[in-house]
Design goal:
The protein has six helices and eight strands. By secondary structure, the chain is α+β, with helices and mostly antiparallel strands. The chain has an eight-stranded mixed beta sheet with strand order 1-2-3-4-5-6-8-7. The longest helix is centred in the middle third of the chain and has 15 residues.
Length: 184
């Protein structure tokens, strides 16, 4: 059996913990800033309806197989700087809402928070996980591939105001006997 991940988790001056309702405006802002980086329009009601309905969507926001959980990553000065979720859909477990503020990318935060969620999924008994990633998020694609995700041939149009398309990526999970080194 996999070891139960402990939250809050720490990486240098960063803390990953279960998101709280009072953090939703900051988490929404992270997603909005990424949209603006790509010149896209943003509507919270359309793009992050789960944030808008935090209490009903995430309920007690604690990990349980089949129930979504949302995490906030904060810096030492309590700046909310990244977000990630583990959700479930008709295909099973899904990595979602993976966003890191632009000024912190390349520092290992994305790798670390994704690995934390993958470890949680393994602990919960998840054997495979997938994600959908915008076709324009090339840097994220490289990160996911480094973490063992493979690009599928499945692409879906979102029929949204930004005319986006998403690639599906997937990863088989197995209980790890040794965790990969945390990034420096």
């Amino acid at each position: 059996m996999a070891k139960k991940p402990e939250f809050p988790a720490k990486l240098r001056d960063y803390t990953m913990d279960y998101a709280r309702e009072d953090q939703i405006p900051a988490l929404t802002s992270i997603v909005e800033r990424v949209f603006h980086e790509y010149g896209w329009q943003f509507s919270a009601a359309v793009e992050v309806p789960d944030f808008e309905e935090f209490n009903s969507y995430y309920a007690n926001n604690l990990p349980e197989i089949g129930k979504p959980v949302l995490f906030a990553i904060t810096s030492a000065n309590n700046r909310v700087c990244a977000v990630i979720a583990l959700k479930y859909d008709e295909e099973g477990a899904c990595l979602s809402r993976v966003y890191v503020d632009a000024d912190l990318r390349g520092e290992g935060i994305g790798t670390w928070m994704i690995q934390q969620v993958l470890d949680l999924a393994v602990f919960l008994g998840v054997s495979a996980i997938h994600l959908w990633t915008d076709t324009q998020f090339v840097g994220a694609h490289r990160l996911y591939e480094r973490l063992g995700f493979t690009m599928t041939r499945v692409i879906r149009p979102l029929h949204d105001i930004n005319h986006c398309f998403e690639w599906k990526m997937k990863k088989q999970l197995a209980e790890q006997t040794q965790r990969p080194e945390d990034p420096i």
